[in-house]
Amino acid sequence: MTTTSSVTVVGLGPMGTALAETLLRQGHSLTVWNRTPEKADALVAQGAHRAADITEALSTSEVTVLCLKDYDTIYRIFDTDALHGSVLINLNSGTPAEARAAAKWATEAGADYLDGAIMVPPFLVGHPESVFLYSGSRDVFDKHQATLTTLGDPRYLGTDTGLAVLYNTALLDLMYATMNGFLHAAALASSADVSAETFAELALGWFLPFVVTPSLVEQAPDLDKANYPGTYGTMEMNLNALDHITRTSVEQGIHADLPRLMKAFGEQATTEGYGANNYLAVFEIFKKRAKA
């Protein structure tokens, strides 16, 4: 599983850049393309090739990894005439229906297509235990599994192209529900002047074996300091994920009020000035409601 290959990465936001840097470190021949060319400067300095246009980006490598904002962005960027014969591995986020539509679009244009989802933040890309989900073409997965393994732990879920984003939204749904439960409970305890750090030691020590991760224990002191750095994910990024959870719930015929409620908390936090902070800033919203 150490074979190197030629890879193109399209989309150089924080996650796309992390993917590209990892591929370079692992010895792959890397081509990059971004609508803002300057975002590729650091990667070019490290040895990547900057494609002049999207057609060159597709034709230069054996496989093209997409890391764009959403599925609609793909359709705006790509000329379908240039897709014929290419291999696309899409790591955008969205809903299962959007994933299936993208697979149909790619297939009709003569491209092979695999959909995927990244289950870790950018700084964990490249770690062997970092989970990446894939669904769709088994042939594409098998042929490029060695390359995918250099990014993390690739999990193939099945031939239904929508499975990767469905699993992604289901797991994120669990994460946000757990996080909101802790934040609301900590806000309730704070009404009696109990610090989040004090509450977390007892509450998570009791609850941890069942659901909650240790990261909330580590972040509890930041709640008391109202410190919610958006370094690894802003409220805006989290609202994008919550929107996908909500739309997927509707699409799958599942009650959507819980993700709608979680999204509403994030929207209220953004309205009150926490848009550049991480999702834990919702704690401030819960505290205000507890005092009301």
Automatic annotation (TrEMBL):
Keywords: Oxidoreductase. It comes from the Bacteria. Residues 160-288 form the NADPH-dependent reductive aminase-like C-terminal domain. Residues 7-153 form the 6-phosphogluconate dehydrogenase NADP-binding domain. Transmembrane segments: none annotated. PANTHER family: CYTOKINE-LIKE NUCLEAR FACTOR N-PAC (PTHR43580:SF2), OXIDOREDUCTASE GLYR1-RELATED (PTHR43580). Belongs to the HIBADH-related family. This is NAD(P)-binding domain-containing protein. It comes from Nocardia iowensis.
